[in-house]
Amino acid sequence: MSIESEIDTTSGRAERVAIIGAGLAGLTCARELSLQGHDVHLFEKRETVSGRMARIRMQPDRGAKQAAESVWFDHGAQYFTARSVEFSQQVHDWENRGVVQQWLGPFVKLTNGVCEPPPGNDVRYVGVPGMDAICSDLLQQICKVRSCKAENPNAASRAAKITFCANVLPLQRVAQRWQVRYENTQSGVTAQPAELFDWVVLALPSPIAQSLLPGDSPLIQQIVPFKLGPCLAVMMAFDRSLSLPFGGAFVQNSLLRWISNNSSMPQRKKTPECWILHPSSEWSAEHWNASEAAIIGQVHAAFEKAIAMVLPEPRYQALFRWENALPLQPAASGCFSDLHQRVIIAGDWCTDARVEGAFLSGLQAARRLSEEVMKQ
Ligand SMILES: Cc1cc2nc3c(=O)[nH]c(=O)nc-3n(C[C@H](O)[C@H](O)[C@H](O)COP(=O)(O)OP(=O)(O)OC[C@H]3O[C@@H](n4cnc5c(N)ncnc54)[C@H](O)[C@@H]3O)c2cc1C
């Protein structure tokens, strides 16, 4: 799927659109709208794109020799599958361009050291060299859109803008348009772009979207039921391989839900061997306020029990707290919209609690907006 072939010059007038959140849903929406010629400005709280598909760089802290080495962990989304036609086409394109690769695992269902075949026979993909590759690719495409225009003067596409470190504050209506204000997460200074926006797309977990909507928005009632559960992600790196017969395991009879050998994913460093351990949402919620040492201690014990093996001392271990990690009961609506006030809400929780759901929701949000613009 090339950018040029997607350019739609038939859409109506160009709208100014603010998209809050540069995870997969926000970036997918931004790409579609930019290709249709809308004037898109993304605002992202962090210093980079990817949201829950991010990876994290950790510095082992034992010994001067090791201090220079850093290890990467894919501590959020672990892999993705493609079931719909649209996402399958996108994944095919990413695979052809070396953005994603199949992860062969192997995958198992694991009960106290006993491995069984996993449920289903999904093909599982990961971004390479990290999960964030997908969102970085979309960002690059969005930035390239302007150069497409130069090559093809008839094309209506335009490049999107993105502001990082922008923690967006509750939205304000000004002269029938939207004012976006944000706190710069590095300087703490509150800022706002000079322009007002015709539309706002909130590509965010539902509790955050709720907190940004004006109190009288009819969307608040609609999205309140769609909560996301937390996930306490523990990362461990070992100097020698644990030599376990799987790359990813769905853990049974345990506080752990999932464990994976991050180093078994394609294009990752093999040493140190990096492991990701995800407890269940319920356990994460119950232990959310516990100390890092207490959480790591319990997860470490559960890991040993799950693999029926005493672990060597990890070279490195750390905890990451994902607050709005996994939708508990996703909506089936694709996205939510208030076409009167021109707000659209997108995110995995609108469609499906997965990477594919975030992509489809971003696409759906862009389509709803452009359909509405075409009617005007
Ligand atoms: C631990 C974990 C494991 C997972 N495992 C899998 C898996 O194996 N397979 C799978 O398919 N899916 C998995 N998922 C789910 C997958 O990661 C999500 O479905 C997908 O990444 C959601 O994308 P999104 O764009 O909807 O939301 P997000 O990725 O959450 O994007 C929202 C963005 O908004 C930004 N933001 C938040 N507040 C503000 C603000 N006020 N102002 C500006 N920006 C803001 C955030 O920084 C973020 O970048 C997992 C998720 C987690 C956390």
Can you walk through the features of this model?
This protein is α+β, with helices and mostly antiparallel strands. The chain has two domains: 1-54 and 132-225 and 329-376, 3-Layer(bba) Sandwich (FAD/NAD(P)-binding domain), CATH 3.50.50.60; 59-77 and 102-129 and 228-328, Polyamine Oxidase, Chain A, domain 2 (Alpha-Beta Complex). 28% of the residues lie in helices and 26% in strands. The chain contains ten helices and 22 strands. It has helices at residues 3-6, 24-35, 64-67, 85-96, 133-151, 206-212, 219-223, 281-286, 292-307, 355-375, and strands at 16-20, 39-43, 56-58, 71-73, 100-102, 107-111, 114-116, 125-127, 161-163, 166-168, 172-174, 177-179, 182-184, 190-191, 199-203, 228-238, 248-251, 256-261, 273-279, 316-327, 336-338, 343-346. Strands 7-6-17-18-19-16-20 form a seven-stranded mixed β-sheet. Strand 13 and strand 14 form a beta hairpin. Helix 2 (24-35) packs parallel to helix 5 (133-151) and helix 2 runs parallel beside helix 10 (355-375). The two termini are 30 Å apart. Mean pLDDT is 91; it is low at 1-11 and 146-155. The structure holds flavin-adenine dinucleotide. Flavin-adenine dinucleotide (FAD) binds next to helix 2, strand 10, strand 16, strand 20 and helix 10.
Residues in β-strands, percent: 25-35%
Number of helices: 10
Amino-to-carboxy terminus distance: 30 Å
CATH hierarchy, class of the largest domain: Alpha Beta
Helix/strand class: alpha+beta
**Attached small molecules:** flavin-adenine dinucleotide
List low-confidence stretches: 1-11, 146-155
Query: What best-fitting shape do the alpha-carbon axes yield?
Result: globular
Compute the number of structural domains.
2
Question: What is the topology, as strand order, of the major beta sheet?
Answer: 7-6-17-18-19-16-20
Provide the CATH topology of the largest domain. Answer: FAD/NAD(P)-binding domain
- CATH-assigned homologous superfamily of the largest domain: FAD/NAD(P)-binding domain
Give the biggest sheet. Answer: 7 strands, mixed
* Quantity of strands, as a count: 22
Please bin the fraction of helical residues: 25-40%
Multimeric state of these chains?
Answer: single chain
Q: Which architecture of the largest domain does the CATH hierarchy give at level 2?
A: 3-Layer(bba) Sandwich
Q: For the residues shown, what is the average pLDDT?
A: 91
Rounded Rg:
22 Å
